[in-house]
From TrEMBL:
Signal peptide feature range: 1-29
Organism: Streptomyces litchfieldiae
Keywords per UniProt: Signal
Lineage start: Bacteria, Bacillati, Actinomycetota, Actinomycetes, Kitasatosporales
Name assigned to this protein: Extracellular solute-binding protein
Cited SUPFAM superfamilies: Periplasmic binding protein-like II
PROSITE patterns reported in the protein's UniProt record: PROKAR_LIPOPROTEIN
The organism's place on the tree of life at top rank: Bacteria
Length: 439
């Protein structure tokens, strides 16, 4: 996959509480960095940490470009994905902290915001045309904390998409479902044909969460989760949340996910392979699924893989154009960075709104969160898929960050446990709602 999947890495990590943020940090193995460490404010160079994956070659390239013209250099430190989040959390507040660091916005940085460890970029964004006009507003807003900007987009956009098998749908005489009624008809039809309607890697839990995220949005609109994200636990008891949980139970009763989905994982390519082999007709997954199938099941990806938006729910208050998923990844700035070094940090952030940077992301198979991306889509490795994603995100009325990234770990971990129990039949919809309000 071309960009980091925070749902994967979040499964195994335990996040430290805010009180532990000042704990001593372990030494980090740097890759592609040089010069003195800045220590979150000391020294000239800006120390930048990034999640290490296939996309970091782009960050390496643009750090070099930045350093060619800046009086204050950037040192890029790449950290393995499995340990990235924990290392960043334990380092913040210590002399080993980064000056600028990669994150997922929302709940992933809320503890830092509460401890005044980050620069509030809201006024800077308003004053800098490149930042103010350079990024899609829904993407900027999705990474905000309490309505304030503490991050600037720096990677591609990752919406959750309903993928489907074009051959299976054609053979069944069906179109990809645009309404929930059409979706339930497809579930019934494929059941009759002994085809699992939906592939689901339930062993990882987070793929289950995607269904609740979209169903809540379609039932009640993005405002319901906005309330939850902003600390209103009573919003878990909103009628739309109960309706979403009840719909999940109905899907389970209807056999939409088959009988063995809780023993199938996404992370070992189990669910994607099951889908690609024609055993399932649909798969709800992040946009990286296309690249995953192209790598592992190229014949299926090139001939049978289709994609569409999540169906509209009749009678629901949600806007059918709304999107859930990973809006993007963000750069945040340590609050210890001041003066000329902060000026240099802002210039570094502005570089990521440039057409040159957007083109590099597109060449890498990503869809930038920049407003200039549309004119560059035609040069993407798969222009049709790129255009679909662009139309989806640019026309979205809202873009809700994945729940387990939007919420603090103290809430996200028990939430995932309750979702697992809901999908396993160990909690009724009402018990699920009650358990979440108790958080």
């Amino acid at each position: 996959m071309r960009s980091p999947n925070p749902w994967r890495s979040r499964r195994t990590r335990t996040l430290a509480a805010a009180a532990a943020l000042a704990a001593a940090a372990p030494l980090l193995a740097a890759c592609g960095s040089d010069g003195p460490r800045s220590g979150g404010g000391g020294g000239e160079a800006l120390e930048v940490w990034v999640y290490q994956d296939g996309s970091t070659t782009i960050q390496e390239e643009f750090v070099e470009k930045f350093n060619e013209t800046s009086d204050i250099d950037v040192n890029l430190t790449q950290i393995a994905g499995d340990s990235y989040q924990e290392r960043a959390r334990t380092a913040m507040g210590t002399p080993n902290a980064p000056d600028i660091f990669f994150n997922w916005g929302g709940g992933s940085i809320s503890d830092f915001v509460a401890e005044d460890m980050l620069v509030d970029l809201t006024d800077i964004v308003a004053e800098e045309p490149e930042l103010r006009d350079g990024f899609l507003p829904t993407i900027m807003d999705a990474g905000a904390v309490d309505g304030r900007y503490y991050g600037v987009p720096m990677r591609g956009v990752q919406p959750v998409i309903l993928f489907y098998n074009k051959t299976l749908f054609a053979d069944a005489g069906l179109e990809p479902p645009s309404t929930w009624e059409a979706f339930t008809t497809a579930v019934e039809t494929f059941q009759e044909q002994d085809v699992t309607p939906v592939a689901l890697g339930g062993a990882d839990i987070w793929p289950n969460m995607m269904w609740l995220e979209y169903l809540l949005d379609r039932e009640g609109g993005s405002e319901v989760f906005d309330r939850i994200r902003n600390g209103d636990a009573s919003a878990w008891g909103d009628p739309a949340m109960l309706a979403a949980a009840e719909t999940v139970t109905q899907l389970l009763d209807d056999g939409a996910f088959g009988n063995d989905f809780r023993s199938v994982a996404y992370t070992n390519d189990g669910a994607p392979t099951f889908f690609a082999q024609g055993e399932a007709a649909m798969h709800l997954m992040g946009s990286w699924e296309f690249a995953n199938q192209l790598t592992n099941q190229p014949e299926f990806a090139e001939s049978d893989l289709g994609w569409t938006t999540f169906p509209a729910v009749e009678g629901g208050a949600g806007d059918p154009s709304a999107v859930v998923g990973n809006p993007t990844n963000y750069w945040s700035v340590n609050s210890q960075v001041e003066g000329e070094r902060l000026d240099a940090a802002v210039e570094f952030l502005k570089l990521h709104a440039s057409e040159e940077y957007a083109q590099a992301l597109i060449d890498n198979g990503d869809i930038p969160a920049t407003t200039n991306a549309e004119e560059l889509i035609g040069s993407a490795p798969n222009p049709e898929y790129a255009q679909f994603q662009w139309d989806m995100i640019s026309g979205a009325s809202s873009f809700t960050l994945s729940w387990d990234q939007a919420l603090p770990a103290s809430q996200a971990t028990p939430m995932l446990d309750s979702i697992d129990k809901l999908f396993g039949g160990q909690l009724t919809p009402q018990e699920f709602v009650d358990s979440m309000q108790d958080l």
